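Ticket reopened. Same input as before:
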Amino acid sequence: MSAIRENVGRVGRMNWVMNLAVLLLIATGVLFIFSATHAREDSTVGLWRQQVVWAAAGLLCYVVTALTDYRHLRDMAWGFYAMALILLVAVLFFGTRIYGARRWLMLFGVGVQPSELGKIAVILAGTCLMAPPADKFEGRPRMGWSFLLAGVPMLLIMKEPDLGSALVCVPLIMAMLFAAGAPVRPMVALVVTGVLAVTVVLAAVALPEKLGVSAETQDRFFRTIRVSAYQRDRIEVFLQPGKDPMGTGWNKRQSQIAVGSGGLTGKGYLKGTQNILGFLPKTVAPTDFIFAVIAEEWGFAGAAGVLAAYAVLVVAGLYSAMVARDKMGRILCVGIVALLFTHVFVNVAMTMGLVPIVGIPLPLISYGGTFMVITLFSLGLIQSVYVRRQGI
Amino acid sequence: MVTGEAINLELRRIRTILFVMLGAFGVLVGALFLLQVVHGHDYERSLRNQSMRRIRLPAARGRILDRHEVCLGDNQPCYCLALYLEEMRRPGRWTNTVAGVKQTLTTLTAIVGRKPLITEDDIWAHIRLRLPLPLVAWRDLDQGALARLAESPTDLDGVDVYVEPVRCYPKGELAAHVMGYVGKADFSDPGEDSDFQFYLPEMDGKVGIERVFNAALAGEAGGRLVRIDASGFKHAESVEREPRTGATVVLAVDARIQELAEGALKGTAGAVVVLDPRNGDVLALASSPTVNPNRFVPVLTSAMWDQANNDPAKPLLNRASAEVYAPGSVFKPLVALAALESGRVTPEMTFDCTGHFERSGFRLGCWNLQGHGIVNMRRGIEQSCNVYFASIGTLCGYEGIEAMAIRAGLGSKTGIALDHEARGLVPGDAWKRRVLHEGWRFGDTCNVSIGQGALTVTPLQMAVVAATLANGGTLYRPRLVLSVDDGGGPYQTNMPPVVVRQMGWPAAALRAVRGGMHDVVMAPTGTGRRACIEGVEMAGKTGTAEFGEKGSGNKHGWMLIFAPFDQPRYAVAMVVDEAVSGGLTVAPRMRVLMNGIFHGEGAGG
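Engineering reply: fixed in the latest deploy. New output:
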């Protein structure tokens, strides 16, 4: 009996503002998955029902995780990390090939994206690394090890290839190190180096035509740095949207038109013309481009509202970090918030045409089973830290 | 215990992270505001004006011609009646439009005189899935219906005749096994952005030349931009890229000879291959029974395919190159050449045929039970004497025969430009140990010496052997395609004759074997005398091969021919699935074919 009472008490101590935001976002997701698919004939029509099932499973996971002490993670984190690495290797060999990339692994009849597991594994293992047991903080956190820890799964994910998911690991590990008290200067140096590298790649895509560098030299350069043709296309389209309005530029343009034409209050639920008439890329409307559907049908008001709900999650997550009873709780919350934030930011920016198109879903809203359960599991961890906060 | 200072640092940093993230969200909201509220009207306008879709326009498939440019594979326009639903859009809900469309369909049914292919569900599906594309309501309109439509006084907005190029084979069944047929393409590799555009189905070659040269024949689809606004109205259209017609494939086949070859097989199952021994050109490649590939277009239903595929007569099987037969006596010229090459046999050497051959406990009957008496090589070939060939075969030894068969191209693909080519089998000690788990025996050598045993060949391989005997020992790869012409594009090729190898047969040996083959047709007692035609000296070899259970009486009949004897222009191999013997069943058919080639209408080239 006391165990039950204790757990009921814990449920009461959860951050209910955050719970509310989570539920609102999930409901919005289901509504708009329906909207993005209702006008269609094929098998995607029932996607919203599947999403409800996944959300239910995810919410159960959310509550159970919230009630469980996050400090048990210390025993499991490395095993989880090893399992994620194994799956990431396995997907390269046994993964289902879709559009030339192996990102999906069939496990017991369920399709799983190991890259999603990889990201959360980096957070869990990184937390254990940066917050040693018994809270005995000695000097600086182990930066080198942290980068190695994030680097291995990143390389494997890039190999699929899924550049977008791989790059998500960067802000993640950076935020965790920063919060763990790592010296700022080497991190800044690293960021600057990264930005420089990206600039070089972008310049290589955009400049040669103007500078008169031959196509062969360009090809050799991209082969050397391993940027594939379609990645190059997408960067090019991002830089010069007018170049190929009917080919690769299609997504970006149509998505922008959908968002832009939404206006202040939108065209009304189920009335988005871009969406219904199939201008939005069909396969990704319920997944990576769902924010475009929301922005078209609910307008600026709805889109900003969704962003506000995410802001609530960010605030609640970082608040949990501040009131956490130990360093492990702090780092864990920061990592999870960083993961959530990166996904939201990149996805929304991509929908608006501010960054190149990468396959990054919108947490809690985009259609997708693995990602839904993992997001809710990680948000459950934030609640677990919050439930066991200081002074309780 | 951790110092408070360290914890304070961490808390400060978490607060920094919070501000950065909220700031970033602020930037996003600002950008959203700019995009949706400040510039919203621009995008609304572009939604109206610049919503374009790219429609894929299928390319007409390339033509397939015979060597004299007779067209064997062409396209014909398939007149369809299509509805452009967006032009039929009525104000208000789509239900209004669908009601209008149904009304139009009723009017049209009266004019066309046939029920439409589509139901109301199809209309709804089309509206949802591929609105800018024409919705085909009738296919294959005849001239009468087209005329009535043109004269129809009714105001028919959004109804138009839509022309699709559809594969057709003007000569029907002619060379069906060479041509193959086309079917709906599998979009196995749609690429990254496939779903973002509309694709019209295209056809793919499934067998034969259609498949082997599919990439060249397919051409390149074009694209059309269709400008439509958000309510579904089409504003204007412009062709972005014209479709490029596929390449023309010119075959070495001579339609006249192909027709004769198929005529020679009328009413029986079998195959004929006619080669030009001077360069390996495949002048005809026929297999019977056959199918009319026009039946498979424009849509090959699975029922039709099942029917053709399960037919016990196997009309889809290309017996000329994809089926193997025991060669029987048509293998004997190679045995003779191997024996002569071994040096242990000369053309003049004689053997006494008593009607059977018996040695080391192995007994083999000659087809002539009375025996051929004293036989030399020329007479041995003319009479196809089994005792003679068992004798020289065992004198020569199996290694020599095996090597000669392999050098003559048996047991491996000829490399003709067709799919599903069979290899056949030249058995040997290693093969027998692997498959039957026992060693090579004396009896096996005797059997192979008369073309029996496990030895199998394709009619095409035997035609190559005949052509090589005809031209004095140059083994050409059968050349089925002379050129691919796509107007200088990436598939442009000319295919010169390819010499696989020189057999290096000594002139004396060749003279002896060819002399025997000459008598087969030209001597009054020759086994192939029934193939003889007026005014042309020919040489050949008949064959009869048992198959199935021993003693079941199932026999293939064979005949090889090359002609004219002195300067051969044709080398032929013919096989008939169920025959009494090569001389009785195949030779008369060969006569029809050769007579047609030399004396028929259009002959003289």
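Chain A has a mean pLDDT of 82. The longest strand of chain A covers residues 101-107. Please confirm and we'll close it.
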